[in-house]
Design a protein that fits this description.
Length: about 575
């Protein structure tokens, strides 16, 4: 298939850049009709993209690009279970994970929804037993604490949802007396941190790994298996360890009873797996299944919106196309994700994986080298914290399109006596102010009128014309968290569909892993047989030799809980 960059709509958009660059955002924003056309409202989620460097004509041209890329057909192919992940020969059906019980979604001629619900029912039953104390540990005690071991897609999504739910009153109530922790890094410090304050007698370990081969996760799983069996005896593993995986054979080999394993399927990409048992099991153990079911329903409502809405009203499609405009035409490779909600502090780290692992590709889906850069650099922090950190660069340095995410109703409202606005209004004042500061900037003229010293004028000038978009959510309950997740998942798919890449494989993570295997072998040979470092370049040989020499006297043992300070 021809590259998208060879199509006429791509060329038209290239030519259109000069037109857009002639008009400053402050002028674009003075056209109310234009701004009105750049608002989309869906189930109380409001998207305002009027601060994009775009005219209605730009959006029209982007829709033509979408047509040239066969966007609608590609979305349909995803939903109908075609093997659109062609390098792994797999369907891409995370939408099936949150489909209603009576939905029909086929993969390889089979409706996958009943299997999805079998696992969801099993999670509901198991999590209720653990939560109500009818499933107990080896010493007969209720398991009130959960450590979920996993990395990448088996970690970041569940952590984001957990962090977001922690301020929801319903979720707080249902999690009372329980703890959920995430162990991801193979760094023994992470093990020590996670077992600090936990008693193996009351702890359930959930090993989460799609492949059940990921080196970090398996080492952490072995370490916690040892932590449990050295305290409670090897037979305790059956009561204290369960697994989530697509590879049930390896789960059993590891020593976890397959009855205590929660399956998912190869048509779920790791970074799209938070709605499978990967997220649903640990989150249901913490909050109860009914809370997590609302999260799934929220994601599902966006799945339907994405599938059925015309592009002009389709939030993920619009967001995806605007990203393409910023990255491929205006030449802004990065995007800042700025939630004005501390509960969303783990949203940007999750989206980093979903976006950068999906779209950071150098060839088209047919293997043709791309003559343009695909993917974008995502980063972010909650506001207002970020304002006191990297916003200087965003305001006066590089142009970085920003996503401002705000929440209408705070889950934890505070109104101090004597204050003019509530704490939440204070937060939101910044959410509303920052996009205009970026868009309008401040001119030398304005500064002169304010009698600013001439030598400071260049330093205090803001060029403005810096694009952003704003999403306003009604509240941050489980349902809306599901929606937010699905909006971004689909936005990223849209970008990949337009660029014509495979957003659902991740070969780029393999090379580093295989080189680490070589290093691991060397470390082992040097430590056990005293072998010299060999077969590496000068730099790595020097560094490895220094590491081996300087760490030869460090005693190795099971990590212990960190001391209380
Ligand atoms: O779930 P697992 O099989 O353990 O994989 C965990 C993670 O590791 C891999 O390296 C991939 O980059 C990720 O996409 C994946 O989510």
């Amino acid at each position: 298939m021809a590259l998208i960059s060879d199509t006429q709509p791509w060329k038209d958009l290239k030519a259109h850049v000069d037109d857009i660059n002639k008009t400053h955002l402050r002028d674009l924003l003075s056209d109310d009709k234009r701004c009105q056309s750049m608002l989309v409202d869906f189930e109380d989620i409001l998207l305002d993209y009027s601060r994009q460097q775009a005219a209605p004509e730009t959006i029209h041209k982007l829709f033509q690009l979408a047509e040239a890329a066969s966007l609608k057909e590609k979305i349909n192919r995803m939903y109908s279970g075609e093997h659109i992940n062609s390098t792994e020969n797999r369907s891409v059906l995370h939408v099936a994970l949150r489909a209603s019980r009576d939905a029909v979604i086929q993969s390889d001629g089979k409706n996958v929804v009943p299997e999805v619900w079998n696992v969801l029912d099993k999670i509901q039953e198991f999590s209720e037993r653990v939560r109500n104390g009818s499933w107990v540990g080896a010493r007969g005690k209720a398991l009130k604490d959960v450590v979920a071991i996993g990395i990448g897609g088996s970690f970041l999504g569940p952590l984001f949802v957990h962090t977001a739910l922690q301020t929801d009153p319903e979720a707080i109530e249902s999690a009372r007396g329980r703890q959920l922790r995430f162990l991801a890094n193979v760094d023994p410090i992470d093990v020590a941190r996670n077992i600090t304050g936990l008693n193996p007698e009351t702890t359930l370990v959930v090993v989460v790994s799609k492949t059940f081969t990921t080196a970090e996760t398996m080492l952490n799983a072995r370490t916690l298996r040892e932590w449990i069996s050295s305290a409670l005896g090897p037979s305790a593993v059956a009561k204290h360890m369960v697994a989530v995986s697509t590879n049930l054979t390896l789960v059993e080999k590891f020593g976890i009873d397959p009855n205590n394993a929660f399956a998912f399927w190869d048509w779920v990409g790791g970074r799209y797996s938070v709605c499978s048992a990967v997220g649903v099991l640990p989150l249901s153990l913490q909050y109860g299944f009914s809370v997590i079911e609302k999260f799934l329903r929220g994601a599902s409502s966006i799945d339907q919106h994405f599938y059925s809405q015309p592009f002009e009203k389709n939030i993920p499609v619009l967001l995806g196309l605007l990203s393409i405009w910023n990255v491929s035409f205006l030449g802004y490779p990065a995007r800042a994700i700025l939630p004005y909600s501390q509960a969303l502090e783990k949203f940007a780290p999750h989206i980093q994986q979903v976006s950068m692992e999906s779209n950071g590709k150098g060839v088209s889906i047919d293997g043709v080298p791309l003559p343009f850069e695909a993917g974008e650099i995502d980063f972010g922090e909650p506001g207002t914290n970020g304002q006191h950190s990297f916003y200087q660069l965003i305001h006066q340095g590089r142009v970085i399109p920003c996503d401002f995410i705000g929440v209408v109703k705070s889950q934890q409202p505070v109104f101090l006596k004597g204050e003019v606005v509530s704490n939440h209004d204070e937060l939101m004042s910044n959410y509303f102010a920052q996009p205009d500061a970026l868009a309008y900037g401040k001119t030398a003229d304005q500064l002169q009128k304010e009698n600013v010293s001439p030598h400071l004028i260049p330093h205090k000038t803001f060029s403005g014309n810096r694009p952003s978009l704003s999403l306003l959510l009604p509240s941050l309950n489980a349902y809306n968290i599901g929606k937010l997740l699905a909006i971004y998942e689909h936005r990223i798919a849209v970008e990949g569909f337009i660029w014509g890449i495979n957003s659902f494989d991740q070969w780029g993570v393999e090379l580093g892993k295989s080189l680490a295997t070589q290093v691991r072998k060397q470390l082992n040979a040097s430590r056990t047989k005293g072998e010299q470092v060999q077969g590496f370049n000068f730099s790595t040989t020097t560094m490895l030799t220094r590491y081996l020499q300087a760490s030869s006297d460090v005693p190795a043992d099971l990590p212990t809980a960190l001391p209380k300070i």
